[in-house]
Amino acid sequence: MADRQWLRRYELTMGKSGGAGVKTDKLRVAFEVKKGDTETPNEATIRVWNLADETMQRARREFDRVVLEAGYQDNSGVIYAGNIIGKRIIHENGVDAVLELTCGDGDEAYVGAVVSKTLAAGSTPKDVIGEVQNSFGEYGVQQGEIQELGGERLPRGKVMFGMTRRYAREAAYTTDTSWSIQDGKLTVVKREGYLSGEAVVLTSETGLVGAPEQTNDGLKVRCLLNPRIRVNGRVKIDNASVQEAKAQAGKDAKQPAALNSDGFYRILQIAYVGDTRGQDWYCDLVCISIDASGSKTADRKGAAG
Length: 305
Known about the structure:
The chain is mainly beta. The protein has helices at residues 53-61, 107-112, 125-137, 164-175; strands at residues 8-15, 21-24, 29-36, 43-49, 65-72, 75-92, 96-104, 114-119, 142-146, 158-163, 177-182, 185-190, 200-202, 208-214, 219-224, 234-237, 264-275, 281-289. The protein is 13% helix and 43% strand.
């Protein structure tokens, strides 16, 4: 039985890492959350209207962590968890005070984590990722889904010294995987695979909005806000509902992303947009056919450094 997409629900928790937080589910909140299958931190902008003065001041002085749950009464869950990296107060209409938070998921770990370790001969890429997890863990990043890496054993010892993200990138490259931090958890997924769990079936009855559009970058899909939709997870779409791309002429013309014959697609990007007092309450997705995942390797390497 499909979850009923009615009676919106949200809960925003703001606080200091390792301490108690302040929760709200009544005030007006608007958000823009962008997630992707890239190593660079997922971003969010969250706005909260008319907090109590004491809470507003605490937020400005102390708060460095945010967790946002959203969805509907029958289907609600975390859509973003991350570090607060910027704060400002916006005054609207001379009356409303709006706290705006700029956030980065795993931002501190990505920027600051350094590894210093020597691996013995015979170590595997899994051992490298284990040290990456230990290093990121010092910044609060937990272990998420890490799929079987495979890869060759080291013929000799290896010194790991430098930015942790560099070693995560190297391990991912040599094992044909992609790594990212999703809601404070390190995730490593095969490029031709997907996260465990059932695919989310999207139809007009389960939240699909309009017609999915075939583009050069992938299948673009809009649906009602659904926390079960995850980066590197799967959705199932009836291809008969897809607006197919127009063929382009010329030898240099870009070809549209392939459609999956069974209607299964891997999610590469998600944008959650919501306003508890407005119309917005959507997910915008960019997906690729699972059969075509390997062709996106170069696109998902992320930033260097």
